[in-house]
Amino acid sequence: MSKPLRIALAGLGTVGGGVVRLIETNAALIERRAGRAIEIVAISARDRSKDRGVDLSPYRWEDDMTAFATDPGIDVVVELVGGSDGPALTLARRALAQGKALVTANKAMIAHHGIELATAAEAAGVALKFEAAVAGGVPVIKGLREGAAANAILRVYGILNGTCNYILSTMEDTGADFAAVLAEAQAKGYAEADPSFDIDGVDAAHKLAILASVAFGTTIDFAPVEITGIRRVLAADIAQADALGYYIRLIGMAETEQAADGTTRLFQRVHPHLVPRDHPLAHVDGATNAVVAEGNFSGRLLFQGAGAGDGPTASAVVADLIDIARGDAKGPGAAPFSIPVAALETLAPADSGPRMGRAYLRFTVADRPGVLAEITAAMRDAGVSIESLIQKGRAGAGGTDTVLVAMVTHEGPESAIAKALRLLHGSPSLTEPPLVMHILSD
Amino acid sequence: MSKPLRIALAGLGTVGGGVVRLIETNAALIERRAGRAIEIVAISARDRSKDRGVDLSPYRWEDDMTAFATDPGIDVVVELVGGSDGPALTLARRALAQGKALVTANKAMIAHHGIELATAAEAAGVALKFEAAVAGGVPVIKGLREGAAANAILRVYGILNGTCNYILSTMEDTGADFAAVLAEAQAKGYAEADPSFDIDGVDAAHKLAILASVAFGTTIDFAPVEITGIRRVLAADIAQADALGYYIRLIGMAETEQAADGTTRLFQRVHPHLVPRDHPLAHVDGATNAVVAEGNFSGRLLFQGAGAGDGPTASAVVADLIDIARGDAKGPGAAPFSIPVAALETLAPADSGPRMGRAYLRFTVADRPGVLAEITAAMRDAGVSIESLIQKGRAGAGGTDTVLVAMVTHEGPESAIAKALRLLHGSPSLTEPPLVMHILSD
Question: Which of B298, B300, B304 to mutate to test the interface with A (most CBs of A within 10 A)?
Answer without folding.
Answer: B298
